[in-house]
Specification:
Strand order of the largest sheet of chain A: 9-8-7-6-5-4-3-10
Number of domains of chain A: 1
Largest sheet of chain A: 8 strands, parallel
CATH topology of chain A: TIM Barrel
Helix content of chain A: 25-40%
Distance between the termini of chain A: 32 Å
Oligomer: homotetramer
Order of helices and strands of chain A: HEEEHEHEHEHEHEHEHHEH
Strand content of chain A: 5-15%
CATH class of chain A: Alpha Beta
Chain lengths: 279, 279, 279, 279
């Protein structure tokens, strides 16, 4: 497993005896420690009500961090592209109200300063994993970075991207496995759970799973979250929407609040079974 | 999740309200019940000593069923093709000594009668998933069939193959996810854990995972077994070898006996965390 | 390109200086020579009229060999499985009438003797590429074998299967690239044209392409046939049906007779442009 | 082939009866017309001598456009990242000397103005296919855009990216198929030749192939270029290096000048065989 092909030339993202595993601090939370960190919320920030209701629900259910998109990468230019700064302000209000730190995506180097002013974690999406100018820019930011795996990236390429961020001086990178492209035609992507133990064995960085994009199907989110945690993931990124049937984006893979509560209940004993805890 | 594309035309392998989930009986064991069933043993039956020692070890560690190949599908005709009937006899002796039922592969319709005489479960390998004459033949056998997923088979194609067996009269089919082909270059295959909850949601049949072929890397076997069980798998098929460094086949993915014991110890609380048990 | 990984352990299927490239004789035809050989006909033999009409059409258009399935591997057991021996008899009649040699699939070792009695080329389908007992059996047959690539087979695995046939004594193997599984969702498979020059560079065996299964879409068959020939293929296997809208199988990818004639007309100058000829 | 899934919501990149196919003018050249346009040159601009020598060679061999990278997306931050503006100046000098227009990559919105000042065609690389801020920016540029397909992009996603550029007002988009990720382990990527006729059938935009990145292997470049042209491609992007053994990047897939001349000689009759010409 310490195959050279995986880490050749990688200096900062690799596991080594001299330096401890990276523990990313987000407020009072630690990603990469004994607690399984759950980031939950809507795919997209749509309205004040939608966000606040969903934020309260996930907070109550035990989520640690609130997710929500203000800048949205969409396949077509004609689709809703997110609320932009208005969305960031709503996220900020939701944090004030619930106390949950925020994670949201940034898509362009020139937006980093703006997004950084509002968010607690900067998310790099799967389409931008190898957007090197963007990686370098968030490498100079003062907030942790959640780096999603490219949809057909090898482990080596992914670690190379983490290296771009780390080598610019930002030590706080959280990796996120979000599903890869395969021939499978039932799921939207194939969540590559094996990436979790591989990263744990070769890298210092924490890793979480995104079972929502990883499957695209609501009924698979809970079992795949559990699979990720059992395999050693430090957390999960889960889409929850107060009214998924009317979501502007990704409704089919968003959990309803009661489904998310049920999942949190099931995660608790599972986390303990692998020597961790949920809260 | 009850997408028509997955089960269109599938009559017997589908889940429905009229009929209970299939519970496959193997001696006193039930695959598809509350117990997580672990099948363990060497990739290939090599010698009497190798098999007996490995069999005793896995029995002691808590395995429920002994696996071992007598007829081996190999990429080249010049590679060791297995001991054939001699291997079956050794497996039979190992069962007598340990009390563990046996699962072993059959590759040809004309060998079914022979293999059936020795084994408790007939295994159809990934390369033969769509060998329809073979499927029809084991569909007329009196032993349960372990049907591995083809290495690039869709869920629909896989269920179609189960249907070939069921429609010939054999109701006892156990599905086994063993990894799919993807662009990933670290692992031998990509173990598609999402197949577990998909099958659980659309099919009556039990499903287990094969983390050994699914990863090809020893250090990934334990975490991926746990991922499979957390996702709802009814068991696992794990390669264990008393001396993997000298194995004739698949040594790099075989657990050493002490590693297998450690895995069994870790599986116990995990099984309980998902409402099952290991023994 | 003489990468060891591709041919390691392959003895008979490799290109070497001591032995000339394999030229497979089928009656007066040579596959692997200066003529681009076109095998055309329906996916499945359905009726006497359907086969005879299609056979006459493809003969007139310049096809060299008639294809047609009598034993059909189908995803579900409830689908039409082919006419069996009756289909073989019809193929034989079509040969008598048109003078075209026949290629048809055999799915089971026990059927080889029967199919061999009727056909000129034994086809091994993609699902059976690694059905090793079947490969060994056709390796002892007296007719050439058309070996389709498995739908997720590496070049190495494919050559390994050719080796199974060659090592049993049958020197006449024709490889057929028929499309691989990928994430592409427009085409049925992804026709891997690069397999053609790879095989030409590492192997002695002739190779043809199957643009019909390789794309699954009628309008792509002609351009992909031309791509294959331009890349160096020794021929093509093309589905043609006299009435594709009412075909029992694969109608959407079958050319109508006039489309096939047009393709043959376009192939002629293309074959000459790469130093070959069509007739 | 006019499957809704491929073009749903695509307005400007689709083929329709009202508007002719897009012909992109680059100086006196037309991409998308009767001439097969060959863009050739080194992966990376390294030195004045390397570029000038290679430029003269490809010009003499009949290439139409000079390619060369000044800004290089590299897997690791420690690899040579290109000469930047210095590289653009060298490219400009090579154009002055040979008369060949230039195509070079731009990786960041903020670099577009700079690169545009030097180049004739702006290249968007595979890693940036869905870098939407970059796409929008080049959509406001005054030079044509060469849009490479993402390494695991569907046809629909690719057309969606073209749409981002077109909808900002730039009508001149050239698509470039450069190979997709698959399980294949011989080639660097799998050049999806079927993308060529699909694009021709559903889109107005011209399409070329990149057999160098598409295979990663020098000996496959010529046959795959020919395959692309036979399938209907409007041109090819070919890596040529005056001394590939000492190239800083991609030497193994770069043609030597004499190999490129041979390829141009073989392309000539092939282009004519499909109703086009090379010069």
């Amino acid at each position: 497993m310490t195959s050279l092909a995986v880490t050749q030339g990688i200096k900062l993202a690799v596991k080594n005896d001299d330096q401890p595993a990276t523990r990313v601090k987000v407020g009072d939370l630690v990603v990469g420690g004994e607690t399984v960190i759950v980031m939950a919320g809507p795919c997209t920030v749509e309205t004040d009500e939608q966000l606040m209701e969903t934020a309260r629900e996930v907070k109550e259910a035990g989520a640690h961090i609130l997710r929500g998109g203000a800048f949205k990468p969409r396949t077509l230019p004609y689709s809703f592209q997110g609320l932009g700064e208005e969305g960031l302000k709503l996220l900020s209000r939701a944090r004030d109200e619930t106390g949950l730190p925020i994670v949201t995506e940034v898509m362009s180097p020139e937006d980093v300063e703006l997004v950084e002013a509002y968010t607690d974690i900067l998310q790099i999406g799967t389409r931008n994993m190898q957007n090197f100018p963007l990686l370098k820019r968030v490498g100079r930011a003062s907030k942790p970075v959640l780096l999603k795996r490219g949809m057909s990236a090898t482990i080596y390429e992914w670690l190379g991207c983490a290296e771009y961020i780390l080598s610019e001086g930002n030590p706080d990178v959280i990796l996120c496995e979000r599903g890869i492209r395969s021939f499978n035609d039932v799921t939207r992507n194939t969540l590559d759970i094996s990436a979790v133990p591989i990263i744990k064995q070769v890298s210092r960085l924490p890793i979480i799973v995104d079972p929502s994009h990883g499957t695209g199907i609501r009924s698979l989110v809970a079992p795949m979250t559990k699979a990720g945690v059992a395999a050693g993931a430090d957390g999960a990124l889960v889409e929850v929407h107060c009214d998924p049937d009317h979501a502007l984006c990704d409704g089919a893979q968003s959990l309803r609040p009661w489904e998310f509560r049920a999942l949190m209940g099931e995660l608790e004993p599972l986390a303990r079974a692998v020597g961790k805890r949920l809260s």
